[in-house]
Design goal:
Elements lengths: L3 E8 L2 E8 L5 E13 L2 E14 L8 E7 L10 H22 L1
Length: 103
Amino acid sequence: MANIVFVVSNVNSIESSQQIDLADILKCRVIESSRSVSTKEGSLKVVDKIELSFVNPDKNKPDTKVEFYNADYDRLTLTGEVQLSEKWCKILNDKIAELSKVK
């Protein structure tokens, strides 16, 4: 696995790309934005967005965020995005830890 993460996204026919150098990252974390919706049966958790956040070691610089899921333009039903984002977060954190040992 290389030390660079290359992300390509296509939202509403607009393609964008990002390159993230893992050697410059402290850690990766999953950010889940959700809300509670009341139903007849009780309350239901609705996930609006899932992002991977690449934490910058310099607190004066913003973290880099990569959107994994957004209910505004992805399908309304989650189909494994939570598990997939957690899997990628672990893979990336393992690589970041490996790189930090080399420094």
